[in-house]
Each structure stands twice: as structure tokens, then as C-alpha cells.
Amino acid sequence: MPTMTPYTDEVAKRRTFAIISHPDSGKTTLTEKLLLYGGVVNLAGAVAAKKNQRSTASDWMELERQRGISVSSTVLNFDYNGYKVNLLDTPGHKDFSEDTYRTLMAADSVIMLIDNAKGVETQTRKLFEVCRRRGIPLVTFINKMDRFGKEPLELIDELEEIFGLPTYPCNWPIGSGSNFQGVYDRQEKELHLFQRTEHGSYKAPLKVTDIHDESLKEIIPPNEYTQFLEELEILDGAGHAYDYDAYLAGTQNPVFFGSAVTNFGISQFLHHFLPMAPAPGPRETQANEWIAPDDKHFTGYIFKIQANMDPKHRDCVAFLRVCSGRFTRDMSVKHVRTGKTVRLTHSYKIVGQDRETVDDGYAGDIVGFSSNRGLFAIGDTVSDGPNAEYVAIPPFPPEVFATLRNKDTSKYKQYTKGLEQLSLEGAIQIITLKDSIDQNATVLAAVGQLQFEVAQYRLESEYGVATVMEQMPELTHARWVSGESEDVQALRGMNVQSAKDSQGRLMALFKGEWAMEYTIKQHPKIAFHTAPIN
Ligand code: G4P
Predict the structure, then answer these.
(1) Per-residue pLDDT tens for 6-20?
(2) Whole-angstrom Cα distance, residue 115 to residue 103?
(3) What residue owns the CA closest to ligand 1's atom 17?
(4) Which CATH number fits domain 400-529: 3.30.70.3280, 3.40.47.10, 3.40.50.300, 3.40.640.10?
(5) CATH code assigned to 283-383
(6) Which residues line ligand 1 (CB under 6 A)?
(7) Going by CA atoms, what residue is nearest to atom 19 of ligand 1?
(8) How far is the CA of 402 from the centre of ligand 1 (A)?
(9) What is the pLDDT of residue 511?
């Protein structure tokens, strides 16, 4: 019997998840609709809230304003049917950053949002891979059913083929675009009829006990009705059965169809998704122990650091995911990496520019701490009990590279300090090339171009250091390497370059995917890793 602690009920209520999607699939819209149903925004304000969301979230940093994007990501909370929902908001721009990946590390499950006309797009694939590596349970929401798109069966095939996971459509659409009639809930066996509304209010579903009900023939045009019945037969006959354990293990993909902009399918989605999505589970420590979320001791780790949140104070906000026990404001905890005792005083929840004080939190909750620069690094564990450290958040193999030069040599100290801080915050990775001719240049590596822009901007605005950046477009892939030193030493060629990361771990950088695959084949004695081997 698992032991109950005062925190067991709190943990069971929590759902901490993120939405992954390709830009324009409707993530902002879906987020807003989830907030609408969660009672956070009212209907009248909903559209305006969406329009304002980008600008308010963007204000804190001039670069974001200039680019009209949001680099920061925060957490949105709402209560729904007894659940405490933490929706981790990943940046909505098309450029990747490691922040997006790290945010996924803090989520217990994920909603994969797909545009019904576009199907699976590149960014969704990449983000899916991150979820798969961690075995994060994932449901798919196929959006924009009020518009013509691909055939639903074709979309299901595409999902199965690309992701290699059996799918289970939890509901099934009848028609699409101007002929969209609604969705049939396969579990509850009820039909929800669609009514087109202007960013509209939700119409209550029409409940039918039998899909062969005669009255439906008057509501649904014959072609759509026949096609729907045929498709349902195919799904029931040849499709996969729903397997909850497989979903939890990340090996089955439940699918929902809906239309976020018209609010269609949102309450139905929440009704199914929240009970099935996992509550926070145990987390593994570096000593291969697992700490239960309702453990009596508070523990958590930093998964994101955002400097410059408030330009007036030049402070730094470290975002912590509570992993066990109870966080209370002002508590003193051990910062395990340094062994120091830290008082967690300035605890916030941040939405756009607003900060709201957070007084307590349980496993699954996200708390932002305003602190001095340098106190926290990505992956740091804090604890009021054992000296455990959670398994580190690995840096991701970079895909873009650039050299950076300090324009003014008298600013050498500021330049080095700034880069060190940016690297500690995980804003960029710093790499040393083995045979670099130019010793004055720093090599920066990242997963998205935007990280470079942010780094350059911050060096100038926070450290007063102007820099020149030059892209290295020929380099496209990187792996950490391990093996016998003579084998690793022999790793060179036209299309591969040896390097070290900021902690001195060996890496190989490649000119193109083909070069990487070729090199890996040519060097069977060397192991190539997507995360560093300590
Ligand atoms: P993103 O955050 O994933 O980038 O997407 P966003 O929500 O901004 O949505 C992208 C576009 O898709 C928006 O149109 C939005 O209205 C539209 N959209 C979202 N969900 C649906 C849906 O269920 N059906 C249809 N038909 N469209 C949907 P836009 O023209 O770019 O912006 P707006 O003027 O409508 O705000």
C-alpha cells in the first residue's frame, strides 16, 4: 500500500502539461480557449486577450518587442472540475530555443496540436522526438475542423506512420469545413453537434444514445452520415482499442478532433483529457533513487532561468518545478550543488508582465524566484530534506553555430563574465574548436538562431559589450563522443570537426546530416551521443 501523506490529495489534483505544435496550428487560440473554460478569461474578453497576449508577453524585453515575438514562457494556472491545471506555455515563435525543450522536461504530459489541413509539420516532429525520448504521455488535438482539411482517416494514417505509434481516435468528426457537422464521442457514445459561432459561445451537445437514431437523418446530410457510419465501422473493426496504460507509457496516441476558434470540442476535450493525463509522478535522482511527489520533504529543480524580466531591477527569475513535498514562501532550503542554505522569499507566478506572489506549491507546480544572478543554474536542485540531486537536464545537440568577437578589447572582462552567465543560464552553449586558428573568437552553439540574437542583445544591453557575430552555416549537427582516446583523436575529416563543450566534454561537429551518418559508420569504435556523457 502506498503511504498517504498530507500532500497525496494535492498531488492527485495536479495536471502539469504543455502544448507542442508548429506555428499557426492554433496554439494561442487553444490556450486561450482552455483558459476560457477554466474561467480565467471571460468570453467577452477572450478575443481581446488573445490579441493582447503577444504584446503584453513581449514587453519586458526590447528584442522581443522589435521582433514581435515572445522569447519568454511562463505557466498558466486554472482550476477545472476539481483539477489544478498548470499549463506550461512554450514560446510561440517559429524559432527553436533550448527553453522549449527544457520546459517539456518539466511537463508530465503533452498535447500535440495539429492543423487538419497541414497534418504533421517539422517542428511538431522535432518536439515529439523530445517527448518520446522522455516517454512523456501525449494526446493529439486535430484542430480547425470547421475548415476543409485532409480526410480524418488520412490524418490518422499520417500520425501512425510518422510517429510509429498506434492511435486511438477518442472522437470522430462528421464532415469537415462548411460541411462539418460535429464529432461523435466514442467513449461516451454521444454525438456533439457543431454550430458555427463567431469565436463563439458554446452550444450544449445534443446527446443521442444510438447513432442510428432516425432523427439524425434530418440533421445530418445523407452523404456525411453514410461516410461517418462507414468510417466508424472501420475504426471499430480494424482500429486499435483504447489502452490507457499504453498512453501513460507513451506508446499509444489518443486523438481528439475539434475547432479551437469556435470553441468546439474544448469542454469535451477537457472532460476526457484531465482525468486521463497523469498527475505528477516520482522523479529520479542522480543516485538512481526515486522521490515520490507526496514525500514529506520539499524538493524541486530549476528548469529555466530568465534574466532581465524586470529591466528596472536587472534581476533574474529562476523557474522551479516542485517535485515533492510542499513549498512555502520564505522557507529555507539547501541549494544542493553549492551546499548553501537559501531562503526562498521572492516567489512569483508570472503571466506576461505581471507578477503575483506565490505562497505555497505542491509537486507539479511551477514557482518563479527572483534572485541574484549566478545563484541558480539550470538543473540545480533545492531541498529541505535529503541532499538528493535530480537527474540533470541535458543540453541538446546544437544545430546552429556562430563565431562571436568582442569589438572592444578593453571590455574583455565584461565579455567573459557575460558569456559565462549566459552559458550558466543555458541561454547559449559555448564551444571550443580543437584546431581553431582564430583564438580571439568564441564559438557559440544553439538549437535555434534566436538564441544567438538574444545572447548578442543581452551582452550589449546588460554588460555593455558590443560584438560581431558570424554564422557558420556549414556546421549543422553535433554529437558528444566517447571511446578510446586514440580512436577519438583520429576523428577528423573534411566534414567533421572536433570540439569541446564548456565543461570540456568532447564533441564532434558535422557539415550536414549525411556527413554525420557517414562518420558514425566509419568509426564503429567511437560512441556518438545526443547528450553529454559525464
Ligand atoms: P499559433 O499560436 O499556433 O501560432 O496559432 P494561432 O492560435 O495564432 O492561430 C493561427 C491562426 O489560425 C489564427 O488565424 C487563428 O484564428 C486560426 N485558428 C486557430 N484555431 C482555428 C480553428 O479551429 N479554426 C480555424 N478556421 N482557424 C483557427 P489568423 O488569421 O492568423 O489570426 P486571427 O486574425 O484569426 O486572430
Answers:
(1) 899 999 999 999 999
(2) 22
(3) 26
(4) 3.30.70.3280
(5) 3.40.50.300
(6) 21, 23-29, 92, 143-144, 146-147, 259-261
(7) 26
(8) 34
(9) 95
Nearest ligand 1 atom to the CA of 147 is: 26
Closest ligand 1 atom number to CA of residue 50: 36
Q: Is residue 308 over pLDDT 60?
A: yes
Residue 486: predicted pLDDT: 80
**Record: fold of 16-70+88-276:** Rossmann fold (3.40.50)
* Sign of the alpha-carbon torsion through 128, 132, 134, 137: positive
544572478: which residue's cell? 373
List the chain domain ranges. 16-70+88-276, 283-383, 400-529
How does pLDDT run across 175-187, given as a tens digit for each residue?
Answer: 888 888 889 999 9
> What pLDDT digit, counting tens, does each position of 491-528 carry?
878 899 889 998 888 999 999 999 999 999 999 999 99
Concatenated DSSP letters of 440-482: TPEEEEESSHHHHHHHHHHHHHHH---EEEEE-TT--EEEEEE
pLDDT in tens, 441-496: 789 999 888 889 888 988 998 889 999 999 999 999 999 999 887 878 778 788 99
Beta-carbon contacts of 169 under 8 Å, excluding residues fewer than 6 positions away, are: 152, 156, 186, 235, 239, 254, 255, 256, 257
Amino acid at 521: K
Is 400-529 in the same CATH topology as 16-70+88-276?
Answer: no
Provide the CA 36 distance to its chain's centre, in angstroms.
21
pLDDT of residue 207: 64
